[in-house]
Amino acid sequence: MKKSEKLFVERVVAAAQKLQIEQKGVEIGPLIALIRKQLKMSQRVLAKRAKVPQSTVSKIESGRLKPNAGTLEKILSAMESDLLITIVPKESLEMILKKQAIVKVKQKMAYLKGTMNLEKQKPDEALFRELFDEEVRKILELPGRELWEEEL
Prior knowledge:
The structure is a single chain. By secondary structure, the protein is mainly alpha-helical. Helices cover 69% and strands 0% of the residues. It has helices at 3-22, 28-38, 43-50, 54-62, 69-78, 93-118, 125-140, 144-148. It is elongated and about 80 Å long. Residues 32-84 form the HTH cro/C1-type domain. It holds the Pfam family HTH_3. This is HTH cro/C1-type domain-containing protein.
């Protein structure tokens, strides 16, 4: 991945995470109501502008109705607003990659330990840990296909 692409993804993820924290627990309906009120618009006016029944606006704002995409688009357009859908990783991309590398290395090491047990060999734990860490570093340098594909 190019450095500019990596920086772009990092900035988008950081902005999305900040927005997620700010909006934590705020549902779409109450948020529509907040914006509508800030715009000094009544439910009746919003409904008329959006070409939906006023009762629909009321139910959405109160959380009794989850709007479909078409209705949501009409309401947001009537408020001169856009809907933002973004991706927010649950943790840093580096951590996700490292966890996956650890999964792959554990699979390899389990096979190695099994083979050694069959041969009645007991690996040195310090050496095994060093080997484990080195394998994690190596696998993180591999192309994505090797990192994510399942063993056949």
